[in-house]
Design brief:
The complex is a heterodimer of chains A (460) and B (221).
Chain A: H1 13-61, E1 63-66, E2 69-72, H2 76-83, E3 90-96, E4 99-103, E5 120-126, E6 129-142, E7 145-156, H3 158-205, H4 224-272, H5 276-310, E8 315-318, H6 319-336, E9 340-345, E10 349-352, H7 354-371, E11 377-384, E12 388-395, H8 404-407, H9 426-436, E13 440-445, E14 451-458
Parallel strand pairs in A: 9-11
Antiparallel strand pairs in A: 1-2, 3-4, 3-7, 5-6, 6-7, 8-10, 11-12, 12-14, 13-14
Chain B: E1 2-6, H1 10-22, E2 26-30, H2 33-42, E3 47-51, E4 53-54, E5 57-58, H3 59-68, E6 75-79, H4 84-92, E7 97-100, H5 105-118, E8 126-129, E9 132-135, E10 140-143, E11 146-149, H6 152-163, H7 171-178, H8 189-200, E12 206-211, E13 215-220
Parallel strand pairs in B: 1-2, 1-3, 3-6, 6-7
Antiparallel strand pairs in B: 4-5, 8-9, 9-10, 10-11, 12-13
Helix pairs in contact in B: 6-8
The chains are: A alpha+beta (460), B alpha/beta (221).
Chain lengths: 460, 221
């Protein structure tokens, strides 16, 4: 099922691409901030551990066992080393056999007791600050007893954390800066990516309506499915049009051939019958067939005019030659009715569609012959001024009883046509041809009665 | 006149042929292009009536081949399609005229006459009757040195009467053949043409006789 078309659903690929770029960049900046922060923190902890480890080892080495117990010789160089780490506070604790001897007795003990000279590093919260601690343990002979001595040294890491945060923040700012610099580039890139679509649309837009060749314009590989679908559609359209044309031709053929037979047989029967009632019936029949084929012709003419108007392509038309050709074709019909056709044709070349003009002129002359007086007269005059060509078709028939504008409408016929057959499409066809050529069609009463039809066509 | 009718629908061909015979013409019927070639090879024709779609090909291709071989018997195409481009194309291919099916026999006759008249001199269509010479194409009646012009319906009337001299034709019959079916005509309209033709036949040795209650006939005096 197709969703109803909602203009609010239209998305801009360009906007979408830019949004995706922005969101992705934001995630990247955040990620960079976290990763750089973590790496900087680790790096600073490693250097702090090195200093703490060296300090705690140095302190431990300064412990000596004396008779009264233990003697601690604090190495001052060690403390100046610790001081170099920045404005940090230092805590220490010396324990013997688990009993605090000196320092902060509540300093958190290491997760695993330190047993030899290798320091154990750990972190803990102490007195409202985050501490990094190093602990070293060794066995010492104190008052003849081998006892475990542990030295624990802790240092706050306020400064270190700040440095790590600063580093991360700088990295994030730098990334943000790059992102902002990349934004116009991204816009340009989005444009460039979308350019082939625009080019394809241009190529399609420039095509004439009759141009149903497949699109062969080079497009990126990603657009190939679209192009394939488009070409598939064009091929189906072409097939459908061809089918329609063949169908119209076939339908016309299949209908007209039996109709011809009916007409021919009816005319033969008419020639052979002497019964008046049968004769009247047969006459009516032949007349109806004549009218139906005339209407069919006009409907086809009308369809042709509509079709050619849609794809109007002006070419040079020798209006004088065309007029003579149409007159020649229509002459036998006029002769049949003993109607005299005169003409006064000036040389005239215009820009237009020859087929449409032929249809218009044929319909005008057809009408004039149909409505002319018995043994009457029809005249075709072609005049050519500097700006306009005018085809004037005059007859000497019963003239107009209705408003000419009313007669031009589709399937409209005058009130005074009597029994004369017709579909009422003829004048519509002429009007449409006039409009397609930016001209005018005018119907007025003739000077000496009858009707005058004027087709004005502008010259280039 | 001698026609070659090339048309694949047997029924339509029969009807058209009967109708043309009624007008006093000779008609041969070919149902295929091969038959048509055969007929054209054996007898001369004044005019070919050629359908477009035939079982063994397109009538237009046949026409192109005929013209390429410099055989220029006049051709009227009978088309079932009224499309303009079709018509223009058939004329470009060497057809003398076209007529759209279903056609009015009056129109077909008028077109045949127009085509033959354009091919001036190709066909001698003069008929001698009583003391006059009737030129169908030139639309004249010659009595001695006097050349009298005939209008289209006078000509048609004389054609019909001359196709079977001595036979009586009713008013109704003549109206049906003289006027097209979408014209409004009263039965008396025929009297006008009879009157005119009578005047033109003056001194020709032929008489247009009125048979009361039956119709008209042409007889030598």
């Amino acid at each position: 099922m197709m969703r109803p078309f909602d203009p609010a659903r239209i998305v801009s690929l360009r906007r979408r691409l830019v949004w995706q770029f922005l969101v992705l960049s934001a995630v990247l900046v955040l990620g960079l901030f976290l990763v750089v922060g973590w790496v900087a923190d680790r790096a600073s902890r490693a250097s702090q551990d090195a200093v703490l480890g060296a300090a705690v080892t140095a302190i431990t080495e300064g412990i000596r066992s004396v008779d009264e117990g233990l003697e601690l010789d604090l190495p001052y160089a060690t403390f100046s080393m610790l001081g170099a780490m920045g404005d940090e506070r230092i805590f220490y604790l010396l324990t013997v056999a688990g009993q605090g001897v000196t320092g902060y007795e509540d300093l958190p003990p290491p997760p695993t007791p330190a047993t030899d000279m290798a320091p154990v590093f750990y972190g803990a919260d102490y007195r409202g600050a985050r501490l990094r601690l190093a602990s070293v343990g060794r066995m010492m002979l104190i008052q003849n007893r081998l006892q475990p001595v542990t030295v624990t040294l802790g240092q706050t890491r306020l400064g270190q954390a700040a440095i790590a945060r600063d580093t991360a923040r700088s990295a994030a700012w730098a990334a943000l800066g790059f992102m902002l610099l990349a934004l116009p580039v991204a816009l340009l890139a989005a444009q460039a990516v979308l350019q082939p679509i625009r080019t394809l649309a241009d190529v399609m837009g420039r095509r004439g309506p009759r141009d149903l060749r497949p699109v062969r314009h080079p497009t990126p590989r990603e657009l190939a499915p679209l192009l394939r679908a488009l070409n598939g559609l064009i091929a189906r359209l072409r097939a459908a049009l061809e089918l329609a044309e063949t169908f119209i031709f076939e339908a016309a053929h299949r209908i007209r051939t039996p109709l011809s037979l009916v007409r021919a047989e009816a005319e033969l029967a008419l020639a052979e019958t002497s019964d008046e009632a049968t004769r009247i019936r047969l006459r009516r029949m032949v007349r109806a067939i004549g009218e139906s084929s005339r209407s069919a012709n006009q409907i086809l003419d009308h369809a042709m005019v509509m079709y050619r108007t849609d794809q109007y392509a002006a070419a040079q038309v020798d209006l004088a030659a065309l007029s003579r050709a149409v007159l020649r074709a229509i002459d036998p019909i006029a002769e049949m009715r003993d109607i005299r056709v005169t003409h006064d044709i000036a040389a005239c070349i215009i820009q237009g569609d020859e087929r449409m003009l032929e249809i218009a002129l044929r319909n005008l002359l057809d009408n004039a012959i149909k409505y002319a007086a018995p043994e009457g007269h029809v005249d075709l005059t072609l005049t050519c001024t500097g700006t306009e060509a005018t085809l004037a078709v005059t007859d000497d028939g019963r003239g107009l009883s209705d408003d000419p504008a009313q007669l031009i409408g589709r399937f409209r016929r005058g009130a005074n046509v009597g029994d004369t057959g017709g579909s009422g499409l003829g004048l519509t066809i002429v009007t449409e041809v006039a409009h397609a050529h930016r001209g005018r069609f005018q119907l007025k009463s003739g000077e000496k009665g009858g009707t005058c039809a004027l087709l004005h066509l502008p010259l280039p | 006149m001698r026609f070659l009718l090339v048309e694949d629908s047997e029924d339509l061909a029969k009807a058209v042929a009967s109708r043309l015979t009624l007008e006093g013409h000779g008609v041969d019927h070919a149902a295929t292009l091969a038959d048509a070639s055969h007929f054209l090879g054996t007898a001369p024709y004044d005019l070919i009536l050629l359908d477009i779609s035939l079982p063994d090909g397109d009538g237009r291709d046949f026409l192109v081949r005929e013209r390429a071989a410099r055989r220029d018997t006049p051709v009227i195409m009978m088309t079932a399609s009224a499309s303009v481009s079709d018509r223009v194309m058939t004329l470009d291919q060497g057809a003398d005229d076209y007529i759209t099916k279903p056609f009015d026999f009056g129109e077909l006759q008028a077109r045949c006459r127009a085509v033959l008249r354009r091919r001036d001199g190709a066909v001698d269509n003069r008929r001698h009757f009583a003391g006059f010479i009737f030129d169908q194409l030139g639309a004249t009646l010659t009595v001695g040195d006097d050349i009298r012009e005939l209008r289209a319906r006078e000509l048609r009337l004389l054609e019909i009467l001359l196709s079977r001299p001595g036979q009586a034709y009713s008013k109704a019959h003549l109206i049906d053949r003289l006027f097209s079916f979408d014209e409004e005509v009263s039965d008396n309209a025929i009297e006008v043409y009879v009157g005119r033709l009578r005047k033109k036949l003056d001194g020709s040795g032929a008489r247009l006789e009125t048979l009361r209650g039956v119709g008209y006939r042409l007889i030598p005096e």
